């Protein structure tokens, strides 16, 4: 939500800089995205303030709500706009009826209006500052009231209405064409406004096309209603969109402001489009309106929690300023009734938070805590997270929902799990891995000047098994494109390679039980020549590799970007570190080179050597890979150093020769390899 700073002055006499206002709102728990200094043609020097309102603070989705917060912080009086009395000049026979899900409805008819009149300059300017498109004076004023008071309004063309107005659940498969020309098929969970001819509005979301105001409109019926949040929540998103009205209704609006908002709108309309006004027709089921229960606050306990010394007098003043009604109190306890616009206040902890906000988070006492040392369980997730952070990685958290496009590019070959009621059309698939979130974060950071990055995420992934069973797994994934080592005077900077990443992961997995090896993989978003599956005890437990060149080109990346992923479900952390003594006897080594098929992996060669080199084997290290002159096409040479050592004796040459002979025979038999001479 965004609005002009000077608009606040309609409600409070405030003389603070824009920066100070933003700072106060931030400390009050409202997230300020930023502000922009502007010059108003009507009110002079001004600024646009942009807020990102959290779902629990629906009361601040209006200029009035924000002004109310600033009023109590700065000990200012809150002024509600003075509304001129509307004189009724005729009687409209339209009647309204409501249901439990939409328990309060007010309406008024205006006839002989001048729809082609211009919107009042101040209203037009404030709407433009709030990023609202100007349409016509009637729609503009309903949008203005929405922003000013937080009450959505809707205007119907009175001549298009048939009979009376009813708020009711939709019929199963009931159709309605909305203002944006979209045709929806509703069910009983949706709420509609209907006349005797059928649905004329998707209640709390958007009006219908057939009864909409146009340039030919001469009379309007203006509605102001309260709908239960549960009846509106998620309904618009089910059809892939959201409106300013549904955003407010689903969070809960003030259920006592409907008539005030209607009067305010009619007062502005009389100045703009003129016309004649009927009396208000309304229907309210008081038993279905929210019932604010009494909440008890123990002030002594609250002060202990916050480290404050707030007196009962000050606490009462705070709550009164917020519109709360203290119903009783004694030395320790105060009983509170929350106002009609605060749906988020339900328990004592909510009141304690209000005291903390108004006292000021920055003014709460700070106390250094004495360290408490205790033995903790060091699990695998914590070890991996701490190790990656120590290696210069930054942890990110991304949504579990991705777009269909991202899934097609980076999803795994598993049946995707599609969300029936997505937050948006770009978040309609449950992720099968963490790759797309990491890449999107990487690109975002790159566009903001962060050319060198090391990022990781630990989160859940989702797959479908047999089209029915949902498999949810905890996964670690990372992305990097940094230099292999920090710049220094001894060495020139070098880009990270596939083998740098492999070595880093080898080091990470050292702390886990089981044998780690690697095998060829064909993952569509990875480079076919620089990728591998991570194998733990001969089971695929992840992958590593460079992003496919086609994706590098598509994303405009100029150097290799490396990815890795590890399935945490298959990891068992070694809770105890084992130690063993050094051998007192010398080691013996041999350098061997084998001619192998080009597609034979180094890990396969290592495995064969481990199984055939005998009990004195200590270490295997591959130091060269060669293809070219002297090597047949389709073949490669792998050079490897093998080290043996005994804890009890010095090994003889014959012991080593016998082991080498066994290795050569095993490589020939299992890998069709030949010793390179």
As for the number of domains, it is 5
Strand content: 25-35%
Identify the CATH homologous superfamily of the largest domain: Phenylalanyl-trna Synthetase, Chain B, domain 3
The second-level CATH architecture of the largest domain is: 3-Layer(bba) Sandwich
Topology:
Layout: E1 2-4, H1 18-27, E2 31-40, E3 44-52, H2 63-73, E4 88-90, E5 96-97, E6 104-111, H3 121-129, H4 137-149, E7 153-157, E8 165-169, E9 174-177, E10 183-186, E11 191-195, E12 198-202, E13 206-207, E14 220-226, H5 229-232, H6 235-238, H7 244-249, H8 258-272, E15 276-278, E16 281-284, E17 294-298, H9 299-306, H10 312-321, E18 325-329, E19 333-337, H11 348-359, H12 380-390, E20 394-395, E21 401-402, H13 404-410, E22 417-418, E23 429-430, H14 435-447, E24 454-465, E25 469-480, H15 498-509, E26 516-519, E27 526-536, E28 539-547, H16 549-555, E29 562-567, E30 588-597, H17 602-612, E31 617-626, E32 635-644, H18 653-671, E33 674-675
Parallel strand pairs: 4-15, 5-8, 20-24
Antiparallel strand pairs: 1-3, 2-3, 6-14, 6-15, 6-16, 7-14, 8-11, 9-10, 11-12, 12-13, 17-19, 18-19, 21-23, 22-23, 24-25, 25-29, 26-27, 27-28, 28-29, 30-32, 30-33, 31-32
Helix pairs in contact: 3-4, 4-8, 17-18
């Amino acid at each position: 939500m965004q609005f002009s700073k000077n608009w606040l002055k309609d409600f409070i006499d405030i003389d603070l800089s824009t920066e100070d206002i933003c700072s106060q709102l931030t400390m009050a728990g409202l997230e300020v995205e930023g502000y922009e200094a502007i010059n108003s043609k009507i009110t002079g020097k001004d600024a646009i303030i942009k807020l990102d309102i959290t779902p629990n603070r629906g009361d601040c989705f209006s200029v009035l709500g924000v002004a109310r917060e600033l009023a109590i912080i700065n000990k200012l009086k809150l002024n509600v706009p003075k509304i001129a009395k509307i004189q009724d000049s005729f009687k409209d026979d339209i009647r309204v009826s409501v249901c439990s899900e939409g328990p309060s409805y007010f309406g008024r008819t205006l006839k002989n209006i001048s729809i082609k009149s211009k919107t009042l300059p101040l209203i037009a300017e404030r709407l433009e500052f709030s990023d609202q498109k100007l349409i016509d004076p009637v729609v503009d004023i309903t949008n203005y009231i929405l922003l000013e008071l937080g009450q959505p309004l809707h205007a119907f063309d009175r001549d298009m209405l048939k009979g009376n107005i009813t708020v009711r659940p939709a019929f199963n498969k009931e159709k309605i064409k909305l203002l944006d020309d979209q045709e929806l098929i509703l069910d009983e969970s949706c709420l509609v406004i209907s006349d005797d001819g059928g649905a004329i509005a998707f209640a709390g979301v958007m009006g219908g096309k057939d009864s909409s105001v146009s340039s030919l409109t001469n009379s309007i019926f203006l509605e102001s209603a309260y709908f239960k949040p549960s009846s509106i929540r998620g309904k618009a998103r089910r059809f892939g969109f959201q409106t300013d009205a549904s955003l407010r209704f689903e969070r809960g609006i003030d259920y006592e402001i409907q008539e005030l908002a209607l009067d305010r709108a009619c007062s502005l309309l009389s100045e703009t489009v003129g016309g004649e006004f009927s009396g208000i027709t309304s229907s309210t089921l008081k038993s279905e309106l929210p019932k604010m229960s009494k909440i008890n606050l123990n002030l002594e306990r609250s002060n202990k929690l916050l480290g404050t010394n707030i007196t009962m007098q000050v606490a009462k003043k705070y709550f009164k300023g917020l519109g709360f009604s203290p119903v009783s109190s004694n030395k320790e306890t105060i009983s509170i009734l929350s106002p009609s616009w605060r749906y988020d206040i339900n328990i004592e902890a909510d009141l304690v938070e209000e005291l903390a906000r108004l006292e000021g988070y920055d003014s709460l006492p700070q106390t250094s805590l004495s360290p408490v040392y205790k033995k903790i369980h060091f699990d695998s997730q914590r070890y991996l997270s701490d190790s990656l952070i120590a290696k210069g990685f930054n942890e990110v958290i991304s949504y579990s929902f991705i777009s269909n496009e991202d899934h097609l590019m980076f999803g795994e070959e598993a049946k995707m799990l599609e969300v029936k009621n997505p937050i948006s059309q770009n978040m309609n698939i449950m992720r099968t891995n963490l790759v797309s979130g990491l890449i999107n974060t990487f690109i975002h950071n790159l566009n903001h000047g962060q050319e060198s990055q090391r990022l990781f995420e630990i989160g859940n992934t989702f797959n479908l098994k047999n089209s029915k069973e949902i498999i949810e797994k905890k996964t670690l994934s990372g992305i990097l494109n940094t230099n292999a080592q920090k710049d220094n005077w001894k060495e020139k900077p070098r880009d990270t390679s596939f083998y740098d990443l492999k070595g880093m992961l080898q080091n990470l997995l050292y702390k886990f039980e089981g044998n780690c090896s690697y095998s060829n993989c064909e993952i569509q978003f990875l480079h076919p020549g620089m990728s591998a599956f991570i194998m733990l005890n001969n089971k695929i437990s992840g992958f590593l590799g460079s992003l496919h060149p086609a994706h590098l080109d598509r994303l405009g990346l100029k150097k290799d970007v490396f990815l890795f992923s590890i399935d945490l479900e298959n990891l068992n952390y070694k809770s105890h570190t084992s130690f063993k003594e050094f051998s007192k006897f010398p080691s013996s080594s041999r350098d061997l080179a084998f001619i192998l098929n080009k597609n034979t992996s180094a890990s396969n060669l290592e495995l064969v050597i481990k199984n055939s080199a005998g009990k004195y084997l200590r270490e295997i290290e591959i130091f060269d890979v060669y293809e070219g002159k002297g090597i047949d096409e389709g073949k490669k040479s792998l050079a490897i150093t093998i080290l043996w050592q005994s804890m009890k004796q010095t090994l003889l040459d014959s012991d080593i020769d016998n082991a080498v002979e066994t290795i050569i025979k095993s490589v020939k038999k299992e890998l069709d390899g030949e010793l390179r001479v």
